[in-house]
Amino acid sequence: MGVIVFVAFVFAAIGLLHLYLWKRLVRDTTRPGRWRRAGTVAALVLGVLVPTTMVGTRMGQWWLAWPGYLWLAVMFYLIVVLVLLEIPMLGAKLALRRRRRTATVPAEPALVGAGGPPAEPPARATPDHSPDRRLLLARGAAIFAGLTATGVSGYGIRSALGPPQLDRVTIPLARLPRAMDGMRVALVSDIHLGPLRGRGHTERIVRMINDMDADVVAVVGDMVDGSVEELGAAAAPLEGLRSRHGAYFVTGNHEYFSGYQQWIDEVARLGLRPLRNERLEIEGLDLAGVNDLAGEDYQDGPDFAKTFDGRDPSRPVVLLAHQPVQAGNAARYGVDLQLSGHTHGGQMVPWNLMVRLEQPVVSGLGTVDGTKVYVTNGAGFWGPPVRVGAPPQVTLVELNSQ
C-alpha cells in the first residue's frame, strides 16, 4: 500500500510540474491556434515520457533511458530558472499595469455657454496594448529559461560522462597506531552500472584505483542498476582490482532493487569480500561494514550490535556504510571514521540542498556525534546523465596517526 501511495504521489508531482511548464512555456507565450495546440501535445508527450522511462527501464526497456532522463534534467533546470524568474516577472507585470492605469490623453474640449472658457477635458485611457507586452515578456522569459536549462544540462552531461576526478584527503585518527600511519584506502561508491553506463566505465575506474597503489579498496554500494544477468559482463573488470589488503564491498540501496543476493555472490566471485554486518582486523585496525538501510525491507538491514560485538575498544575502527545518515548509529559504537557515498554530492545543484535535509554530510569530510564521516561524490550517476556542481569522483583516503 505504501509503494502505491508513493508512486501515485510521484506521478501526481510529475503531472503538476508539466502543467506548470505548459502554462509558462506554451499558454503564456502563444495565442490560441495551432502553435498552442502543438505545444500542448508536446507537453503531454514529455509528461508521459518521464514515468514511462522510470517504469520501462526497470522492465529492461533501456532504450528509453537517454530521451527520458535527458528530458528529466532539462525539465529540472527549466523549473529552477522559471521559478527564479517568477518575482522579476511579477514586478514587470505590475509595472505594465501601473503604466496602463496612469497613461491618459485629452478628449475633445467642451464649451460652457457662448464665448465661455472651455471646460476641463475628461481623461480618456490610451488603448490597452498590455496583452502584447505581456506576451513579449513571457516569450523572453521562456527563451532565457530554455537556453539556460539546455546550456547547464549540456555542461552537466560532459561532466557526468567524463572521467571521475581523483580526490586525495588526509584524515587523522587519534587511535591509529604509528605503524599504520599513511595507510591508504581507495574509496569508490555509486558506480551505477546500468542503462547508460557499462563495461568501459568499470574498466576506467579499475585503472584509476590500481594506479593509486592502495592498501585497501572500499566499494561502498550502489554498484549496479540491474540484474547479474544484465550487468555481469559490465561488472567483470572489478576482478582486476589490486591492493595490499584486499578489496571490500558493502551493499547500497540500489543493490536491493537489483537482486542483492545474486550480486553479493557475484561480487565475491570477482574477488571482493562483502562485509555484511561484520568486522575484520587489518594489522592494528578494525575494518567493518554494515548493510544498507534499504535492506530492512528485505530482512537484511544493518546490524551494528552484531558488527561490533566483542570489539577491542582500544583499536581504531573504520566503517564502510553506504549512507552517511548511518553515522548516528556508528558513533554510539565508537567508530573513528565512516566512509560513505549515496548522496552523489547532490549530483545536480541545487538538488544538494534537498539532500542536506536527509543526510548529515553531503560531500567531503564532516563529523557526526564525534565520528568523522567522509562522503565521496560517487563515480557514476543515477537518472539524468548530468552532474552540475558535483563532479564524479574516486577518492584516495590517507589515514594519519595523531
UniProtKB/TrEMBL annotation:
Has the keyword Glycosyltransferase been applied to this entry? Answer: no
Q: Where are the transmembrane segments?
A: 6-26, 38-57, 69-91, 136-157
Q: Where is this region: Disordered?
A: 107-131
GO biological process, any: lipid A biosynthetic process
GO cellular component assignments: membrane
SUPFAM superfamilies named among the record's database cross-references = Metallo-dependent phosphatases
UniProt-recorded name of the protein: Membrane protein
Q: Which organism is it from?
A: Phytohabitans suffuscus
